[in-house]
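Issue 218. Parser rejects a valid record. Input:
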Amino acid sequence: MADRAGHERFFPYESPYPNQREAMDRIANALARGQDVLMEGAPGTGKTLSALVPALAHAREEDRTVVITTNVHQQMRQFVEDARAIAAEEPIRAVVFKGKASMCHLDVGYEECRSLKETTRSLVEAERDRRELAERSEALLDDARAGEEEAAEARSAVLDELDGLAEEIEDLESANVCEHYRANLTRDTDDFHDWLFEGVRTPEEIYAYADERGLCGYELLKEGMEGIDLAVCNYHHLLDPSIREHFFRWLGREPAEVITVFDEAHNVESAARDHATRTLSARTLEGALSELADADDSRAGRARNVVEAFRSGLETAVDDALGFGEREQVGEEWHELGIANEDRRDDLTLAFLDAYEGGGIDAEIDLARQVGESLDEAYEEAYRRGETTTRKESATLQAAGFIADWMGEGADLGRHPMAAVRRDAGTDEVYGRAELYTAIPRQVTEGLFEEVAASVLMSATLRPFDVLGDVLGLSDPVTLAYGLEYPEERRRTFAVEGPALFASDRDDPETQATVAETLDDVVRMTPGNVLLFFPSYGEAERYHDLLDAPNAYLDEAGTPTEDLRARFVADDGAALFTSLWGTLGEGVSFDGDDARAVVVVGVPYPSLSERLEAVQDAYDRVYDDRRDAGWRYAVEIPTIRKTRQALGRVIRSPDDYGVRVLLDKRYTRAGRDMGKYGVRDSFPPEERDELIDVAPEKLKFATLNFFADLDAYDGDPPSP
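Output the parser choked on:
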């Protein structure tokens, strides 16, 4: 490979894909200007390297670190492969970082781990002090024997210190310590860091290496991250503000010294909501009341006033929100309840205020927080001293913080008040929780994008860019869009003029017969495997049973994705029935013969829920100058992105070929007469231009002709 100049020296392969060089150049220019980038690229067009190559070059020149992140497990593996390929051409120091839970040798939580480390460090320091004092004592003894009068007196003081240290060490040794972390502190770990940067190591490799040597790989990894070129991590390391602060500190970087790259960035919106949303269950409130009843603290009585009233308010709000017979139908999963009101405070707040009889809500919330902090410190000390085997956390502290948010910051932060109920599997009791749901994600992401040097957000489905920029809080980003550059004659995308599969029409026998027959045609006419995406797992199961196709695979909620995919792609002429909202709709590749056709059945709008309504309402308020902003931003655009992701499971390389089918009238030109429910115009122009309208009964002929023209059949084509 010839020597390359500039950022292309980080490109690890012989030549870029079509448009990849242009994308790298434009991203390099944007980073030099400190601008964010939104890049949409069709599957298989090399988005990761298009972003990573110029970002690494920029970071090397400006002494910065690149952090690339995803929420898709398979993409994490792809990042590792790309980083290894880059490192083989241009040396880089890279780490792949996961959370403590996946790398820790002990089954403990974050607070327990922190306590273990502090106690272990104290023990190691005390043992070091004892060794130093012992050496000092021996030296003083030699001096005393040599006739130095002051040496004997000094040695006596040292021996007193040694006695005190012996007692301290005895106490620490009986406390909870981590032997793996102790080994980190007492042994030479240079070999670990030499090994770490000989290549790009996965968390699993780090765990195995450290475990074999009795070390804590997680802590050693953190210690070795300072000033690295590249970090690969999960979304929560950047989207959670408290974790992000720690993460940047481990990198040894200020935010302005970090370039962030988000892959599958169409997921950032929902992930940001999840990270910002807070909950408080009745179980935690009961735990807080129990703590306060047992606490030997003069403030506990007044703190109890506010916690008791909030628990009572939650119970009242939940009872009032449950419809007739609804409580009996509640299962072990959380069941959402609407408690918000348009013209007044939410029902929980009103019930809380009605139940409260204390001497001032703000003052007593503050007292509850103080008591909780005191209790938390006591739990910490008990765990450190080995008096408890687990590090308990104060329910009072959790409750006080949540109630303060609910009554104060919640509204200002744009959080939507909600409640939910579930059934306890052990006691069969139904209990509730309060939730502050963050409807507008830019309240989470805008601060991140403002503080880092620049960000690149990439996905196969980011458009419309203006909407994404709005909801995430990106200011004047550079936008790049690259469609499928592969030969158009090797793919067909059909919009089937079948029934409009609204939820209310899905049980109609004629509709089901039409859909089932059309799907059967695609499966029969496709020389290879077919992916079938439905609006829900229930609909997937319905048509799996109706078709009764040979080699049919049904994806059900909770099915291990990798196992199901492996069995499906190993088969031939198989059909996989799944939900578009499941795990197979994005981030999972079906290359070449893995799948030759994909069908999206219906327009898979998300199920109506309290959360979805909250997001729609929030967008309508924020963008009140834009018609149907709530519907478009919260429902239509995410749904079309999901649909486009599903279509992208086939046609993954220039040599690939296949058929893509959208089975619903709303995708066709005729669907434009259906107002906002016609979605054809929601696709990007070049994708919309490829849509070929076809009647259900004609789809089999269109599919047959396409594959026959490519000589794709092994033998004679099937009979229509």
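Fixed in the parser; the record now loads. Residues 362 and 408 are 9 Å apart (CA to CA).
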